[in-house]
Amino acid sequence: MPHQDQDTSLRHRLGRTFRTPIGITALTGCLVVALVAVFGPILLGEQAARVDTDAINQGSSAAHLLGTDQLGRDIAARVVVATRLTLRLTLLAAVIGVGGGLLLGVAPAVVGRRPGRLITATVGVLVAFPGLLFVLFLATIFGVGSTGAVFAVGLAMVPPMARLVQNLTASVAGSDYVAAARILGVGRLRLVVRHLLPNIAEPSVLFAAQATGGILVAFSGLSFLGLGVQPPEYDWGRLLNEQLNRIYVNPAAALAPGAAVVLTGLVFGLLGEALAQAGGRRTPRTPVPAPVQRAAAPVDTDPGDDDTPLVRARDLHVTFPGGRHAVRGISLDIGAGEAVGLVGESGSGKSLSALALADLVPYPGRVDAGTLRFDGRDPRADPHLGTELAMVFQDPMASLNPALRVGRQLAEVAEVHLGASRAQAMARATDRLGAVRIPSPERRARQRPHEYSGGMRQRAVIAMGLMGEPKLVIADEPTTALDVAVQQQVLDLLAEVREESGAALLLISHDLAVVAQVCERVLVMYGGLVVEDLPVAALIGGAAHPYTRALVGAVPTMATDPGTELATIPGRPPEPGEAGPGCPFAPRCERARDRCHDEVPDLTSSGPGHRVACWYPVDAVAVGTPARTTSNGAEATP
User: Fold this and answer.
1) N or C, which terminus of the chain has less Cβ within 10 Å?
2) Would you say residue 414 lies in a domain?
């Protein structure tokens, strides 16, 4: 998503959050505290400093709401005036804590391994040290006074902040896009600013906001002990110290500074909670208006087509920086209600092709196509396809938030995309869980993903895709991590979903047996290209491309002799960017000739519903085609 769209989305979420009770309370509290800090010393500064020997140690009265101190000064005015200094010192300490925590937190991700380990170990030791003792230790080192207290409290916040940032950056630093940035030569400072900090901003801000309340309490505690603010200056902790000995005579005077500390700390806590709602999945939902009917985008059709397919891609490319050409100009059609299998070895471009159809290729990948249409619209320019296209990934836990109940996650789809109320969305989530054969859907909807088995989690992800009315279901290796019995259940479920909803299915797999069971047509990919397109019925005996034949030969059947050695394909698939000028399979193909190494074959018709990209298809070679030229110039018959 573009950075501008992210900013707009964040502003929208913040706006919605600060219209909730928690958001309104936090915003009101912050505004009140800020106004008191700004205007309190201006309006009441003189009254707070005025010494009145005739009103020493008086109790509450109309003239002095909280009474007076040992010099006759108005305590209520002093509590109000102390707000500015208390907040200023608290925020200074928070800046030191947050800044130092960020520096130590991101350092292990950008410095060398040994310095990084040393920093991590040091932070671990400091975190294990009791916080209060650490504050007192630092206060003793920096000396008595407000400056020393600021550094003591601020530095005491550094270790927990650094530990949080280290844990967050450790997961981000292992991401593929960070590795790609390193390979491309991105500098360390730019790597931190552009790739690490933006991805940990929300939890870091939440922690900082809530920790600021703890800093306020710690700073007031130092002043109360006489280690913080010194006379003639005063903050809330100092006022509490001065009036504590009169708590039984004038309790209001002693409790007012403490109440100010507690209430302001609560304001910081509520602010952190509001930021957590705005930044995470807990964002409250407001009714979404019904989508506006828009004119359909023009549909690209090829001459002679009688029916426009649901999905059409022509000359589809997916590229990454550094010349990594993962998908190299494939063309495919998927008809409405059709089940198509996409097979090939790992790295052949199957998943990226499917992600390109859904406009989900991760940054910094780029999708280019002569024609790319889903139901007559360009998915790259139409943001309203969320309910018409469903994706089921290999690992369901990558799609399910372990901290949220399954029903709540499914209901979010209906709330966001369909404008349903919370009750309506939950009812539909329960119905969809029942539709995918999850027993007791009402009870299961209230459970979290870890309470589901692997097969049930996969069913829940399928149910998530069915929260709308999908016209296409893309299933990317949906059975790889499941045992055989559960695999069969998931495959049967996909077939039922397709039959009941009329949705088309694009099944990505390296298991030809799975594809043959579910699909009607098979696309075989190799090296970022579609090398064969054929009906499932022709897969076993009618495949024309040597690669497809090799894949079929590597799959044992019930009739395979236990002593038979399974066929293998020598060599390895090409990495993106490694493909040469000819057929990508030529280096591993026993039937390759000189032409195969020099020219890329087009995907051409080889019979009804059958296309193959091979200069010398298997059937043609079998009836006698020119012999293959070997490396020493001799000719050999395949």
Assistant:
1) N
2) yes
SS3 of 149, please? helix
User: Where residue 125 sits, what CATH number does that domain have?
Assistant: 1.10.3720.10
pLDDT digits 0-9 by tens, 237-258:
888 888 888 888 888 888 888 8
**Distance in angstroms (rounded) separating the CA atoms of residues 107 and 102:** 8
Tell me how many domains the chain contains.
2
Alpha carbon distance 574, 581 (integer Å): 13
pLDDT of amino acid 342: 93
Integer CA distances (angstroms), 209 to 163, 259, 476, in order: 16, 19, 40
Whose CA is closest to 379, among 280, 310, 477, 452?
310
**CA separation for the pair 255, 604 (Å, rounded):** 86
- Measured between alpha carbons, how far is residue 264 from residues 77, 88, 160, 304 in Å? 17, 13, 22, 73
Q: Which two tokens stand for residue 454?
A: 């692997």
The CA-atom distances, in angstroms, between 6 and each of 1, 13, 18, 165 are 7, 10, 18, 22
Domain region containing 194: 3-279
In total, the chain counts a number of residues equal to: 638
Sign, CA torsion 108/112/114/118: negative
Q: Which residues of the chain have pLDDT under 70?
A: 1-15, 17, 174-186, 276-307, 382-387, 481, 558, 620-638
Distance CA(250)–CA(65), nearest Å, equals 11
Q: Cα–Cα distance between 199 and 210 in angstroms, integer?
A: 19
Q: Are 503 and 473 in contact (CB under 8 A)?
A: yes
- 205-231 tens-digit pLDDT: 888 888 888 888 888 888 888 888 888
Q: How many Å apart are CA 459 and CA 503, to the nearest integer?
A: 17
CA dihedral 245→250→256→262, nearest 10 degrees, is 60
- At residue 527, what are phi and psi to the nearest 5 degrees? 60, 30
531 contacts 612 by C-beta, under 8 angstroms? yes
Q: Does residue 600 sit within a domain?
A: no
Indicate the helix (H) or strand (E) that contains 495: helix 484-501
Does 209 reside within a domain?
yes
* Cα 545 from chain centre: 40
Tokens standing for 244?
A: 């504590």
Contact 249, 75 (CB under 8 A): no
| Sequence-distant (≥ 6) Cβ neighbours of residue 92 within 8 angstroms | 150, 154
